[in-house]
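Input sequence (220 aa), recorded before submission:
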Amino acid sequence: MSAARSKKINKLNGLAGLEHSSGPIENHGREDDSLANASSKSSGVTLRYATALFDLALSEKKLAAVEKDLARFDALLNGSSDLMRLVRSPVFSADEQLKAISALLKKVKITGLVGNFVQVVTRNRRLFAMVGMLQVFRELLAEHKGEATADVTVAKELTAAESKELKAALKSVVGKEVAINATVDPSLLGGMIVKVGSRQIDTSLRTRLSSLKLALKEVG
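Predicted structure, token format:
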């Protein structure tokens, strides 16, 4: 490992207090129980790690590159149920996770700060909180840019034109530029769910069908 790469990894560890946060997650019982325990710890973990990465990217003037690589890694997570299980499940050993994650990063050529960051998270047994870390980083970045963030769940991936139109519509509502965090959920059937801060708008076909079924039951 080069001296420069080692220095960056040490910065990530030091900034977040990563090596001394609360010890690794161990699988002492059923997977569901371990996942519940992991979830209860994730809030503080996500903030520490995401802030560490954001501060380092900002200090090295690499926010744009880090944002791009994180978006690529996020797309990989959302596009593979197997990868998501590897990330969230404590049944895999640290060695198994690190081997799989390192191979993936090499294959898709995610290196630099994001590559180092993901491997540090993996070594420290914090992969269970990776999805949250990505979300917090996006929020920190949006705040840095003076933007609002919108979590958008859609039945199928938005086109560039649809994303542009949605951003314009949201900007007219919140009064500032909006960064969209889009997630695909085919079970929505159609439409979308948009959440900005405490406000949520659900125009999904699934919800409309549920409302229709409820109304029909009441009439019957």
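Checked by second reader. Residues 15-40 have pLDDT under 50 and may be disordered.
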